[in-house]
Amino acid sequence: MNANLVVRALGALAHESRLAIFRALVVAGQNGIAAGDIAQQVGLSPSSLSFHLKDLSHAELVTSRQDGRFVIYSANFAAMSGLVAFLTENCCGGTACEVPAASQA
User: Fold this and answer.
1) How far apart are alpha carbons 40 and 94 in whole angstroms?
2) What is the largest CA-CA distance in the chain?
3) Are 82 and 1 in contact (CB under 8 A)?
4) What is the spatial distance between Cα 105 and Cα 67, in angstroms, rounded to a whole number?
5) Assigned fold of 3-88
């Protein structure tokens, strides 16, 4: 994943509504979910949803397909994996990273 796309993806996810949309799409899995159902789940008007989906699509984090009269949106899991890989590429100086234990507080 190139740095420009990483910046676009992080910028797209740096908004509460877009993050909520993306998380809903991740939960929906590969089958995706209709735009109207996304709007209901995240509590957005259709026009606001459309605006945010455009940003997520521009960042290549979301794909869409026509299914009859519905537009079905899905998370782009390959792009998400690429983003995580880019962010962790040089993790721990190239050695295996240990996940810190959760505090027992």
Assistant:
1) 43
2) 52
3) yes
4) 49
5) Arc Repressor Mutant, subunit A (1.10.10)
The residues spanned by each domain of the chain are 3-88
70 beta partners? 67
pTM to 2 decimals? 0.83
Token duo for residue 31: 């089958």
Strand runs labelled E in 10-100: 33-34, 62-67, 70-75
Tens place of pLDDT per residue across the chain (105 aa):
788 999 999 999 999 999 999 999 999 999 999 999 999 999 999 999 999 999 999 999 999 999 999 999 999 999 999 999 898 887 777 666 676 676 665
